[in-house]
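Service request form, structural biology core

Requester: graduate student, group of Dr. S.
Request type: structure prediction, single chain
Budget code: on file
Notes: please return the result as structure tokens.

Sequence provided:
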Amino acid sequence: MPVFHGTDEVSAQNILANGLDQQAWETAAGGAGPDPKGFSVTDRFEHARDWARWRALERLGDADRGVVLEADSDDLPLATGQPGQWADPGERFIRPEDFTMVGPGIFQAAP
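Core staff response, request fulfilled:
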């Protein structure tokens, strides 16, 4: 089953070329800091598309520079929100300690 992640085009290119990288993830989060759960994905393309537009607007000043990435959920070390841990409907995530398991080629740009 596919899962999606919305981000800006600069971050997307980094993920496509290098996989998940904790330092790049922390840097991209900016002053608010990264989500402590980890790298979020959703099974809802529309949510990822909306998030991509927001991230691109925030980071690059142009909502049209958002990118939705797609991966097969079977290729990812996914976790789900636990009681008392805020998570959106359909959200799963990759814990920071599992980033090294997600190398280049796992995510692709969604059509």
